[in-house]
Hints:
Belongs to the ABC transporter superfamily. Spermidine/putrescine importer (TC 3.A.1.11.1) family. Residues 167-367 form the Biotin carboxylation domain. It holds the Pfam family ABC_tran. It is a single chain. The chain is α+β, with helices and mostly antiparallel strands. It folds into 2 domains: 9-230, 3-Layer(aba) Sandwich (Rossmann fold); 243-367, CATH 2.40.50.140. Helix content is 22%, strand content 35%. It has a 6-stranded mixed beta sheet with strand order 6-7-8-3-9-10, with helices on both faces. A hairpin with a 6-residue loop joins strand 18 and strand 19. The chain is globular. The relative contact order is 0.12. The structure holds adenosine-5'-triphosphate and magnesium ion. Magnesium ion binds next to helix 1. The site of magnesium ion has 3 residues, from helix 1.
Amino acid sequence: MTFSAEKPNMIEFRDVHKYYGDYHALRGINATIKAGEFFSLLGPSGCGKTTLLRTIAGFEDISSGVVLIDSKDMANVPANVRPTNMVFQSYAIFPHLTVEENVGFGLRKDPRSKDEKAKAVAEALEMVGLKGYGKRAAHALSGGQRQRVALARALILKPKVLLLDEPLSALDKKMREQMQVELIKLQRQVGITFILVTHDQEEALVMSDRIAVMFEGQIAQLADPETLYRRPASRKVADFIGTMNFAPAAVLSEDASGVEVDAQGFGRMTLSPDQVMGGATSEGNTIGLRPETLTILFDGQNATDREVFGTVEEVVYYGDMTYYDVRLDGAAEPLRLSMRNVPGRPVLDIGAKARLGWSPSAAVLFR
Ligand SMILES: Nc1ncnc2c1ncn2[C@@H]1O[C@H](COP(=O)(O)OP(=O)(O)OP(=O)(O)O)[C@@H](O)[C@H]1O
Ligand SMILES: [Mg+2]
């Protein structure tokens, strides 16, 4: 998942704004997407993901700013000559055509011979795992298979950039997870730039080299999945990506080596500068801790760093995991913890006293 910085830029947005009438849908987008990158646009409904994707494809004019593809300014470059191709939800294939007619659709005006085109279609079908399905009527396919046909139809045109707008959202959970893995493999195999729109944070984390998290027409943070998860730039991003526990914190002192805080329920700690984020809400400064960084300590177990005490308020058993809500002594809100279940270890009941292990090194401060 590491991505070398020397790769050339494939897409560049420079202060892109988009108005629909009075509505300011894109509010100053600045971002660079590298060649060969698997990039995702992630954000809640209505934040402008599809609009931004469509400005790359050329389906949407921008109100101001610049969109560059492969270092060329796309102003006045119509969609049909841009080196991009878009995959929509599964319904964009033609149900009355066969699979190979669907895939070959974009080659209608291609000057190659019939045999050469047939070979290209066969290759594209093999690439998406549909070898031998060419003569099948497209309507006689499952949702996942239709999605593969749509992919093959886009890939056969050999775009530099493949744009995918929530391509898996029509599939059920199992099929979606399977297609996620296949899409990652496919992207590695063909090596072209994939830009995926999704509002599913798990999907974005699993699939992407880097993710732009968008709220209200702006990019709130652009980073690799691990940075987004461990070092979210604001409380809002932290809340959108997975679950994070927040505890009110008072800043006691600070210098170049870090910030000393007193956090409700946790006490005093010093956080290094890389653990200090902006993006506090109007409620004030808070520390943030992910559920898996808090551990219930059972009899005989010692904390590797610090320990605190609390009471179990909720228990949700998931088979492999148990989720607990634990309220620390002196805290206003319970914390969410996730514990891997181990044979022989008890699951605590509601009302039980719990001893928790934690470490300031896993915390971030939003201020
Ligand atoms: N053609 C249009 N005319 C006016 N407003 C539009 C138009 N298209 C989109 N919008 C508005 O712009 C905003 C961004 O829309 P967009 O489709 O980019 O959101 P999105 O992030 O893709 O959301 P979703 O996850 O629901 O698909 C929304 O508030 C939407 O209502
Ligand atoms: Mg959309």
